Amino acid sequence: MADAAETITAAAKKNVETATAQVKASTQQAQAQAEKVQAAGAQAFREGVDKSVASLTELNAHGKKNLEAMVESATAAQKGAEALSQNAFAYGKKTWEDGVAAAQSMAQARSVQELIELQTNWAKSATEAYLAEVTKTTDLFTASMKDSFRPLNERVTASVEKFQAAR
């Protein structure tokens, strides 16, 4: 019976050792699998953060370019307004001087006929000068508007191209 007890004890001991080895192997395998999952999760998190940072950097650069375009547009608009103002002032001064000269000339007229001729000539030249000034002012205004909107149009075009490329 002692031999049978020893055989049972040896068999039980062997079963315990086998079970322990299997549990240890399963534990190591589970630990290895958990480490793989944790490493994959950390890698995915890192990639997500990197993509987010890259997107924010790109968005920041895009916003900076938009702000620069707005500043450039405002500067062009200001220069255009200054040019229009200077032009209007110069035209007003010239018109005043021409009117004074015409009035002096008309004051020296010797007859009603001469006065009417002087007034007709002055009205004709004043009308021609006015029409030329309207054309010049229109050209200045148009150029100013084009210069003002050019930077904004370029940004819109760049944005549309970027969005279309991202499709």
Low-confidence stretches: none
Determine the number of helices (DSSP H or I, runs of at least 4 residues). Answer: 2
Please give the largest β-sheet: none
What overall form do the CA principal axes indicate? rod-shaped
Helix percentage range: over 70%
Radius of gyration: 45 Å
Percent strand equals under 5%
pLDDT averaged over residues: 90
Distance between the termini: 83 Å
- Count of DSSP strands: 0
The helix/strand series, from N terminus to C terminus, equals HH
Number of structural domains: 1
Q: Given the helix and strand composition, which structural class is it?
A: mainly alpha
Structure write-up:
- The protein has 167 residues and is mainly alpha-helical.
- It has one domain.
- It is 96% helix and 0% strand.
- The chain has two helices and no strands.
- The radius of gyration is 45 Å and the shape is rod-shaped.
- The two termini are 83 Å apart.
Secondary-structure map:
Elements: H1 2-107, H2 112-166
Write a compact overview of the structure shown:
The chain has 167 residues and is mainly alpha-helical.
Considering the chains and any ligands shown, give keywords for the structure.
rod-shaped, mainly alpha
